[in-house]
Amino acid sequence: MLLDTIVSALVDRSLLLLDDDGPLRNRLARALASRGFEVKTAAGVEEAMAITRTQPPAFAVLDLRLEDGSGLTLVEELHLARPDARVVMLTGYGNIASAVAAVKAGAIDYLSKPADADDVVKALLAQSDHLPDPPANPMSADRVRWEHIQRVFELCGHNVSETARRLNMHRRTLQRILAKRAPR
Length: 184
What we know:
With 184 residues, the protein is α/β, with parallel strands linked by helices. Helix content is 52%, strand content 16%. This is Two-component system response regulator. Residues 14-128 form the Response regulatory domain.
């Protein structure tokens, strides 16, 4: 059964890429197309739903949080239209609760942004009984922390005081972190 699903997925290389970050979506779409996928992109949930209803893809790479909703709703819709679809969730908000929700909804993997195209392809094509290889170049703990701070800062409208309150840190400490360059 699983082998049949993988074989049919290898024949049908249609892929839906849903992300509201335009540059990331375009870059990842080109990278996946160069790896043999037939990529259709969507910037919002409604646009992706329309694609799913007319031509359900064999693969999907979906952002978790979007301006007009959640990629989780699309996972359920996609599995109704095509039960053998393989879905990978991408998110800048990596936490255990959202990862569990994504897997319960039917996603096969959950990757944090920025995700490398090779990691996405490995996740899409991985067999369910085989654990994926660890990433070749994982982000350092300092870089993950910096990315999280930047994301919260952006969500708070670049308000340093509000960001410091939400991150439970002193405002001056946050200002020093924001003034520095991103760690490697």
